[in-house]
Amino acid sequence: MTESTALDNSLRLRSILVILGTIPLIVWRGYARTAWPDICTAAYLQSAVVFGILVAGNYPPIRSRWFVKAMTPIVLLHLIVQIGFARLALGFAVVNIRPPTRMFYGFVGLSIMLEGYMFLRIIKAFRPKRAGSGRG
Known about the structure:
The chain is mainly alpha-helical. It has four helices and no strands.
């Protein structure tokens, strides 16, 4: 098995697991009349897609010094986005408005793309320079 095939199989498995994990949340959103399914669905999709699929191959080595340096702003940014979606959903619940499903998932999808892009930029910024480049 070549390296690209192993990578494709790993990505396929993670994608299937994310989709399977989303099904109960979507069903819950269809039956519930509260904001909690929206909050949980947004949190799950953002976390699973960004950390499990988009950034999965670019994590710094866990035992390296720059792991904490790179992951601290990533986790803080993720928490800020999660809190933002929770406040938005709870704000809609207070005024008794449910956003259309397409609009909701559109915002979640946009935030996933932006968050994944920012995470990759943060990882690249904290990646140690090569020893031979003189920037050590």
